[in-house]
Design goal:
GO molecular function: hydrolase activity
Number of domains: 1
Strand content: 15-25%
Protein name: Dienelactone hydrolase
Distance between the termini: 4 Å
Strand order of the largest sheet: 2-1-3-4-5-6
Shape: globular
InterPro entries: AB_hydrolase_fold (IPR029058), Dienelactn_hydro (IPR002925), Dienelactone_hydrolase-like (IPR051049)
CATH architecture: 3-Layer(aba) Sandwich
CATH superfamily: Alpha/Beta hydrolase fold, catalytic domain
Largest sheet: 6 strands, parallel
Order of helices and strands: EHEHHEHEEHEH
Helix content: 40-55%
Radius of gyration: 15 Å
Keywords: Hydrolase
Number of helices: 6
């Protein structure tokens, strides 16, 4: 079974993110779901970004480091949207990553925003909706990642619709059918790497 470090999206550690973590736990995996917002949740993406912008410089990085401190190296890093930056950064820079699950976002692996090269042998899945304005911006990065790593290590799953945060069952954007497929694919990935 895998150990997963799951980072929430910019609306916070919502009931939907916690429910997703529980779904993975029910399959036998250990899931760490840190709250980087100290209990704050927000009704919109815009409100969440407002909160982040109001934090002191370096605070998100400090909270991320605190979340990973003491955890084993052999982790699968996962993140929803805003949380993908934290998950992908750790997957690429912290030794021992077992895999990465990038939901609704992806950071380029080349260019000025890159965290460096993708670590050898680390598998990844990227999930997002093709009509989602936020994911559409990151789709070229997701495609580049898959092309760079090849089909043995990287998979890109796209879904119909334009909802962002479609796997969070506590939000109006929740898409039950797409979320069920995302969860199924996630569990298959974890069974493979765990």
């Amino acid at each position: 079974m895998a150990q997963v470090l799951l980072f929430h999206h910019v609306q916070g550690l919502t009931a939907g993110v916690l429910a997703f973590a529980d779904d993975l736990r029910a399959a036998g995996h250990t899931v760490h779901a840190p709250d980087l917002f100290d209990g704050h949740t927000f009704d919109s993406v815009e409100e969440g970004f407002g909160y982040v912008q109001g934090l002191p410089d370096g605070e998100v990085a400090r909270r991320t480091e605190a979340a990973v401190a003491g955890l084993p190296e052999a982790l699968v890093y996962a993140g929803f949207s805003w949380g993908v930056v934290r998950a992908q950064s750790l997957a690429q820079t912290r030794p021992g990553a077992r895999g990465a699950l990038l939901y609704e976002s992806c950071v380029p692996v080349t260019g000025e925003w890159a965290f460096g090269p993708w670590p050898a042998g680390v598998p990844v899945q990227v999930h997002g909706k093709l009509g989602d304005e936020f994911f559409d911006e990151d789709l070229p990065a997701a495609r580049e990642l898959v092309e760079t790593l090849g089909p043995d290590l990287a998979e890109l799953f796209t879904y119909d619709g334009d909802q962002h945060l479609f796997a969070d069952r506590s939000l109006p954007s929740y898409d039950r059918e797409a979320a069920a497929l995302l969860t199924q694919r996630t569990l298959a990935f974890l069974a493979h790497v765990g």
